[in-house]
Design goal:
Structural class: alpha/beta
Number of strands: 6
CATH architecture of the largest domain: 3-Layer(aba) Sandwich
Radius of gyration: 18 Å
Strand order of the largest sheet: 2-1-3-4-5-6
Number of helices: 10
CATH topology of the largest domain: Rossmann fold
Distance between the termini: 39 Å
CATH class of the largest domain: Alpha Beta
C-alpha cells in the first residue's frame, strides 16, 4: 500500500529536498506541497492525504493549529510535525492537537519515511531528546488567558492595544501580565515573553 503524503514547509529548498527524498521510497508518494498553514489546509482538503508532514512554524498558521483543524476536516489523516527548534511546550500542544509524530529537522530521510509509515499504521513517534526535555521542563504555569495576553504583548504592543485585541480592560491586561511575569520569575513583561517562548509556552 502506498502512503499518500502532503508536505508543508515555507522553506522551498527544504520542502523540495524532502519531497525528492521521500519520493525515492517505494511505498511513499508525495501528492501535494504547501508553503503556508492556510495552503496546507486547502491542499489537504483537495487531495485527502494519508499523512501530512508539517513544519512547526509557517506563515499564516503554525503546524499545530493546522493539525488541530485537520482533526475535524480530515479525521483519518495523520499528522507529523517537523521543527528546527522544538520546545517542550510545543510538544505538549502538538500532542493535545492530535499530532502523531514530532521530530527535529535534523533527522535523515530514512527516519522520516519510517515515522510516516509508523503514524500511518496507527502508531506514534516522538523524538526521544525532545520528549526528555518536555518531561524535565514540566507544564506551563500560565493560565490560557495569561498565555494569550503574553503572546499579544510579544510584539511590544501597548497595554491599551492588547486590551482591545483581547477584549479585556487595560487593568485586567496589566494584572495578567504581572501574574505571568511573577510565575516565570521575570522582572518585566519583555523578559516574561522571552521565558515563555524559550519553553514553547507561547
Amino acid at each position: 500500500m502506498t502512503v499518500r503524503v502532503l508536505l508543508a514547509d515555507d522553506e522551498n529548498l527544504i520542502r523540495s529536498a524532502l519531497a525528492a527524498l521521500l519520493g525515492l521510497e517505494d511505498d511513499v508518494e508525495v501528492v501535494a506541497q504547501a508553503a503556508s498553514g492556510p495552503e496546507a489546509l486547502a491542499m489537504a482538503r483537495a487531495h485527502g492525504p494519508d499523512v501530512c508532514v508539517l513544519d512547526l512554524q509557517m506563515p499564516g498558521q503554525d503546524g499545530i493549529s493546522v493539525a488541530a483543524e485537520l482533526r475535524t476536516v480530515l479525521p483519518a489523516c495523520r499528522v507529523v510535525i517537523v521543527t528546527g527548534h522544538g520546545r517542550p511546550g510545543h510538544l505538549k500542544r502538538a500532542l493535545e492537537a492530535g499530532v502523531r509524530g514530532f521530530l527535529p529537522k535534523t533527522v535523515n530521510a530514512a527516519v522520516l519515511a519510517d515515522v510516516v509509515r509508523t503514524v500511518h499504521g496507527g502508531g506514534r513517534y516522538v523524538d526521544p531528546e525532545l520528549a526528555a526535555e518536555a518531561i524535565s521542563a514540566g507544564d506551563s504555569p500560565l493560565t490560557p488567558r495569561e498565555a494569550d495576553v503574553l503572546e499579544l504583548a510579544a510584539g511590544g504592543a501597548p497595554v491599551e492595544e492588547i486590551a482591545a485585541r483581547a477584549h479585556l480592560s487595560p487593568g485586567t491586561v496589566r494584572n495578567h501580565l504581572s501574574a505571568a511575569a511573577t510565575k516565570l520569575g521575570a522582572p518585566n513583561r519583555h523578559a516574561a515573553v522571552d521565558a515563555a517562548r524559550r519553553h514553547g509556552w507561547i
